[in-house]
Amino acid sequence: MTLSTEYPFVLPKGFVDEDGEVHRNGVMRLACARDEIEPLRDPRVKDNEAYATIIVLARVVTELGTVPRVSTATIEKMFASDYRYLQDFYRVINFGDPTILETLEPGAPFPEAAVGVD
Question: Which pTM value belongs to this model?
């Protein structure tokens, strides 16, 4: 048995870069403890706890179209639906059952049960 550590995704709308190019395809890796601990030291998180999610996503999204490096600025500029999609995707691959990804259309919303929403 092998463990998958990277998962491809397709954003519902796509990240629009400064040249107007839309990037929908990406890859997210599994998070490690450091990915969730390090953001707590960031001063932006001390001012706003919700910012930790942006930092975590910037750490674990390893590819996004032809964007050379995914940063917090990249995540900040995403459409709300894409940001929500990445949050749900993160929950599924790290805390849920990633086999659900095989049953979904690219960019489709996740079933509430898959992301732990009651």
Answer: 0.89
